[in-house]
C-alpha cells in the first residue's frame, strides 16, 4: 500500500511539472490571429551603378506605412516562389508594325522565365476590345500557340465582345468599332484574373501607352493592379499615330498625358518598371532585364500597425535600404479593401 501511495505522489508531481512547462511555452510563443492582415511588398534593390543587389537581409530594410514605422515580420528571397505572369499585347492599328517582333520576343521570354510545373501565365490582346486569348496555364506549349493568335482587328470589325464571349473562346469586353482599351485591359487582367492567384504576380504590357475608349480611368487601372498585388512592367513601342479603326489617335489621351508618361506612372505606382524600345534596346533585351528582376526580388511581409483612428482605405508604403547607396523599388501603396467599383468605371471602392 505504501509503495502504491508513493507512486501516486510521483505521478501527481510529474503531471504538475508538465502542466507548468506547457504553460511556460504557451506564454512565450507568439500568438497569430487569423484576422491579422499581412501585407506583402515585393522589392528590387540596385546599387549606385544600377546593378541588382540580392544579398540583403530583413534587418537591412526600413519600412513605413502612412509615415508610421512597421516591423517586418516575414522576409524571403523570391527565387523559389511561384510566379503568375500576364502578357498584355496592344494589337491596335498603331502597333501593327510591332506585332511580329512582340510575338517572337514574348514566346522566347515565356519559355525562358516560366518554370515547368511551378509558374503560370495568361495572354490578353486589346484594341477596340479586350480579349483573354488564353487563361492561366502552366502549359508552355499552349501559351506559345496562343501567341500566334495575336491579330490586328479589321477596320469593319464592329464586334462587341462581352465576358465569356471572346472570338477565340476567352473572356473579354469591348466597344463597337475602333479604339485602344489599355486601361480596361489592365483592369480585366488584375480584377478578373490576378485577384484569384497566389504568390508573385506580374503583368507585362506591350503598347504605345495611348488609351482610346476605356470605361476605366488610368487611376482605376492602377488601383485594380494594386488591389491584386500585381506589378506592371510596361514596354513602350512608339505608335504610328493611328488606332485600330484607322483614326488619328493623337487626341485619344483625354488628360493630355503622352503614352510614355502614362506607362511610367502605371509601372511606378505598382512597383514595376517602364522600358522604351529603341534600336539600341530591343524587346528581347528588355525581356532579359525583366527576367533578371523577377529572379532577384525580395518579399517583405508585415502586419500594419496603425495610429488610433486611422481608417484610410489607401495606405502609402515607403520602403528603403539602411545603406544609403542602395535604391529600392517597390509599390507605393495598397488598398485595405480589395474591390473596385467597375460599374462606374471609376476609382470608388467597396467593402
What does this structure look like?
- It is built from 7 helices and 17 strands.
- With 351 residues, the chain is an alpha+beta fold.
- The protein has 2 domains: 31 residues; 215 residues, Rossmann fold (3-Layer(aba) Sandwich), CATH 3.40.50.
- The N and C termini lie far apart (69 Å).
Please identify which CATH superfamily of the largest domain we are dealing with.
von Willebrand factor, type A domain
Bin the helical content. Answer: 25-40%
Query: Could you say which overall geometry the principal axes of the C-alpha atoms support?
Result: globular
Number of strands: 17
Flag low-confidence runs. 17-36, 156-170, 172-177, 241-256, 339-351
* End-to-end Cα distance: 69 Å
Structural class call reads alpha+beta
Strand content: 25-35%
Looking at the structure, the CATH topology of the largest domain is: Rossmann fold
The CATH architecture classification of the largest domain is 3-Layer(aba) Sandwich
Main sheet overview: 7 strands, mixed
Number of helices: 7
Give the neighbour order of strands across the main sheet.
8-7-6-5-9-10-11
Q: What number of domains?
A: 2
Amino acid at each position: 500500500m505504501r509503495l502504491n501511495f508513493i507512486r501516486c505522489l510521483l505521478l501527481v508531481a510529474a503531471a504538475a511539472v508538465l502542466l507548468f512547462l506547457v504553460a511556460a511555452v504557451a506564454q512565450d510563443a507568439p500568438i497569430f490571429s487569423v484576422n491579422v492582415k499581412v501585407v506583402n511588398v515585393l522589392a528590387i534593390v540596385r546599387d549606385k551603378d544600377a546593378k541588382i543587389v540580392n544579398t540583403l537581409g530583413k534587418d537591412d530594410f526600413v519600412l513605413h506605412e502612412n509615415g508610421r514605422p512597421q516591423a517586418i515580420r516575414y522576409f524571403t528571397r523570391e527565387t523559389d516562389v511561384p510566379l503568375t505572369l500576364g502578357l498584355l499585347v496592344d494589337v491596335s492599328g498603331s502597333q501593327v508594325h510591332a506585332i511580329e517582333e512582340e510575338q517572337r520576343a514574348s514566346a522566347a521570354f515565356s519559355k525562358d522565365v516560366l518554370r515547368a510545373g511551378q509558374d503560370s501565365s495568361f495572354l490578353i490582346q486589346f484594341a477596340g476590345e479586350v480579349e483573354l486569348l488564353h487563361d492561366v496555364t502552366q502549359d508552355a506549349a499552349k501559351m506559345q500557340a496562343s501567341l500566334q493568335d495575336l491579330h490586328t482587328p479589321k477596320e469593319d470589325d464592329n464586334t462587341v465582345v462581352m465576358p465569356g464571349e471572346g472570338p477565340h473562346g476567352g473572356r473579354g469586353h469591348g466597344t463597337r468599332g475602333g479604339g485602344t482599351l489599355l486601361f480596361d485591359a489592365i483592369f480585366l487582367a488584375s480584377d478578373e484574373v490576378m485577384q484569384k492567384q497566389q504568390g508573385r504576380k506580374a503583368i507585362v504590357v506591350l503598347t504605345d501607352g495611348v488609351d482610346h475608349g476605356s470605361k476605366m480611368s488610368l487611376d482605376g487601372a492602377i488601383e485594380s493592379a494594386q488591389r491584386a498585388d500585381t506589378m506592371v512592367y510596361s514596354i513602350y513601342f512608339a505608335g504610328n499615330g493611328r488606332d485600330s479603326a484607322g483614326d488619328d489617335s493623337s487626341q485619344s489621351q483625354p488628360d493630355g498625358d503622352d503614352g510614355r508618361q502614362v506607362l511610367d506612372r502605371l509601372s511606378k505606382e505598382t512597383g514595376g518598371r517602364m522600358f522604351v524600345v529603341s534600336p539600341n534596346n530591343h524587346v528581347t533585351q528588355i525581356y532579359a532585364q525583366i527576367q533578371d528582376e523577377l529572379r532577384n526580388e525580395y518579399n517583405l511581409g508585415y502586419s500594419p500597425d496603425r495610429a488610433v483612428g486611422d481608417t484610410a482605405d489607401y495606405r502609402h508604403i515607403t520602403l528603403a535600404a539602411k545603406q544609403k547607396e542602395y535604391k529600392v523599388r517597390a509599390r507605393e501603396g495598397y488598398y485595405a479593401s480589395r474591390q473596385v467599383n467597375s460599374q462606374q468605371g471609376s476609382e470608388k471602392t467597396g467593402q
